[in-house]
Every structure is written in structure tokens, then in C-alpha cells.
Amino acid sequence: MLSEQTIQIIKSTVPVLEVHGVEITKRFYEKLFTSHPELLHLFNHANQKQGRQQTALANAVYAAAKHIDRLEAILPAVKQIAHKHRSLGVKPEQYPIVGEHLLGAIKDVLGDAATDEILGAWAEAYGVIASAFIGIESDMYTNSAMQPGGWSDFRAFVITGKKRESDVITSFYLTPQDHGPLAAFEPGQYVSIRIQIPGDTYTHIRQYSLSHVSGQPFYRISVKREDTNPAIPAGKVSVYLHNQAQEGDIVWLSAPAGDFTLDHTDSRPVTLLSGGVGLTPMVSMLHSLVAKQPNRKVTFIHAAQNSQHHALRKEVEQLAEDHPQVTVAWCYAQPTDLDSSEKVYHKEGYLDLPWIQTLVPSVNGSFYFCGPVPFMKTVNQSLIAWGVPEADRHYEFFGPSGALA
């Protein structure tokens, strides 16, 4: 436990972290990768270039400082990060390295304001927080390895199918190279895929949601090719998977992870809202709902640019046709002429609350949503305005966590 003096010192640094947090975390990653370049194998370099990882870490450090006297308040965030760490293969011996360079970054940025007293308090607090992560992740590694068909690190998988789902999304069907059983997973979870791209110095690890249901002889991920926006660095892994990976190739997967999962104990109506490639966990949830809760009303709402960018559409429409409790609705921002002439969508433009309310009769239900950050902000703010309580709003970021305020 932390002493009262340490708690007060940490809380006194909250205003400083609010101003200098991103600067500190940017300096932290510079120091970390300079001293330990091998850790670059664990990180998404595109997120580093965009500053998303630095901002996410700054938010986490700020939250830890703000709630240092009641760390249970940040336990959900700790568990979410721990899932990511377990799927990446983060090990206990890496935590002291992180602590050393985080304290060094605080000293570098704050200069003389980072007194020995402040650095000592942060060293003590980091030790407590790191111990919590290590303990939670140890349990996760054990549980992952002990479950039927499970494993703790990375396992070799064969690409046994590659299917183009839209102009920008392709599905990959993955089966274990050892032909052993597959661990079950909860709808909404993801796997980490580890790839060595020819000519690249570092291995690359990315998380992709599982887009089918558990119990199949394969895992399926549906990947968006991230090279269409010149303002954003191209995604090396997604481009490699689309352009070079072939059936028969070997990739390495972590066991399924993640806490953005469907609550099957809830029997109320459920609404699944997605934008772009954010539909992948929602399709998994839909498969699971019709299989396990055939009497539960489901509304599946998806926003895409147009039919050419709309993946897995026929699969979802077939599920809705086979299961009358499922309703689907499509929102196209820029429908093609053919889309318009054939009336293959239900709303043109962008998703908004009045339209959602025409599809979902009541706030009495659960809402799950995933997609680009602007889409999720719109959905979250709409649901808040409608009066949907926080406990019924479930969402996940693709990549480092952010804010939906």
C-alpha cells in the first residue's frame, strides 16, 4: 500500500500531467527505444508516428495519478490494457525497464520541478501499479494456456482461406499448423497476429477482431487495407496481408483476448452499431446471438461509404433472413449510382440519433458499437442524449484507447 505522503505527492502532480503528459510520454518512448530497440518488435509503428500511443499512455498515467488513492477506480482500464499486454507477449521483466525510462522522461521534461521527493513518490507508485499489471497478466497467461485448445504465447497458424469482402476488406481463415484444437473465444474478442515481413528489421504484431463465431475449425479475421489515406502512414501488416500473404503461408497468433464481449446473460433487445471495419466484432456477436439467444431481438446497424466498401453484407443479410428476430439497416455516406438505383441502403449521409430511434423502439436494451473514432463519438453522444445509461453502452477502440467526450 502507498503511504499517505506518497498519495498526496502523486495527486499534486495531476495538473502538471494534464499539461505535459503527452510530452512526457513522447520522451519516454524515445528513451525506451533508444536503450531497448528490441522492444520495437512489440509496438505498432504507425500508432507511434501518429502520436496515438503517446496520447493513450499519457491518459493512463494521468488517470493513475488522479485516482492514486483509489486505484480500484481504474481497474477496468488496467484489465483492458492487460488483455493487450497478454496478447502481445509482454513479460514481467519488462516492467522495471518501463519504470526506469518513465521516471527519466518525467525528469527530462519537468527539469528541476521533478524533485527527488516527486520522483521517489512516482517510483513507489509505479511499483504498486506494475505489480497489479504483472499479477493480472500472470493469471491471464495461465488461464489462456490451461483452457482446452489454449496456449500462452504465439502459435503457428496456416492461412487456409483468403476472401475479398469489399474493395478494402479481406477475410483470412486461419487453422492451427499442429492440427490441434482451437481455444474458444467470446464474441468481440481479438487475436494478435505476428508477422515477419521480408526486408523489415522488426517483426510486427497487430490485433484483429475475430469476425466469426467460436466453435468453428478456424479463426477468421477480416482486415482493412490501411493505405488509402495519404495523411496517415500506411499499415504495413494490413498491406502485406492484402498484397502478399497467400493461402498456405504461416502466421503466428496469440490466443484470443479482450474484454469487449457480448453479455449473454442479458435478454433485453440488443443493438449492434458499426462503422467501416468496426463491423468485424459485431458480426461475431450477431452469429453468437442467433445461435445462443434465438428469441432475443437484435438490431444490426452499419455505416459505410457505399456498397463497394461494405464487407460481409451478404453474410449478415442471410442471418437476418434466416432469423426473423434480426433487423438490419445500412447507412451509406456516398452511395454509388447503382446503390441508389437499386435502393440497397436505408439512409444516405451519416448516422444520427433520429434515424437510430426509428430503428430501435426503446432505450431499454444494450448497445454495442465499434468503428472509427468520429463514428464512435457520434454514436456515444447520441446514446447519451437519448438517455442510454453508461452501463448499457459498450464500445471498443481499434488501436490505443482514446476519449469519446
From TrEMBL:
NADP(+) binds at G276, V277, G278, L279, T280, P281. The record marks K84, E396 as: Influences the redox potential of the prosthetic heme and FAD groups. Binds 1 heme b (iron(II)-protoporphyrin IX) group per subunit. The active site is at Y95, E137. Residues 1-138 form the Globin domain. Keywords: Detoxification, Dioxygenase, FAD, Flavoprotein, Heme, Iron, Metal-binding, NAD, NADP, Oxidoreductase, Oxygen transport, Transport. The record marks Y29 as: Involved in heme-bound ligand stabilization and O-O bond activation. InterPro entries: Cbr1-like_FAD-bd_dom, FAD-bd_FR_type, FNR_nucleotide-bd, Globin, Globin-like_sf, Globin/Proto, Hmp, OxRdtase_FAD/NAD-bd. It catalyses: 2 nitric oxide + NADPH + 2 O2 = 2 nitrate + NADP(+) + H(+); 2 nitric oxide + NADH + 2 O2 = 2 nitrate + NAD(+) + H(+). FAD binds at Y190, R206, Q207, Y208, S209, F397, F398, G399, P400. Residues 152-263 form the FAD-binding FR-type domain. It is an enzyme of class 1 (oxidoreductase). It comes from the Bacteria. Residues 149-405 are annotated as: Reductase. One of its GO terms (molecular function) is nitric oxide dioxygenase NAD(P)H activity. The keyword Iron applies. Its cofactor is heme b; FAD. Heme b binds at H85. The keyword Ribonucleoprotein does not apply. Its EC number is 1.14.12.17. Pfam families: FAD_binding_6 (PF00970), Globin (PF00042), NAD_binding_1 (PF00175). Is involved in NO detoxification in an aerobic process, termed nitric oxide dioxygenase (NOD) reaction that utilizes O(2) and NAD(P)H to convert NO to nitrate, which protects the bacterium from various noxious nitrogen compounds. Therefore, plays a central role in the inducible response to nitrosative stress. Consists of two distinct domains; an N-terminal heme-containing oxygen-binding domain and a C-terminal reductase domain with binding sites for FAD and NAD(P)H. Belongs to the globin family. Two-domain flavohemoproteins subfamily. In the C-terminal section; belongs to the flavoprotein pyridine nucleotide cytochrome reductase family. This is Flavohemoprotein.
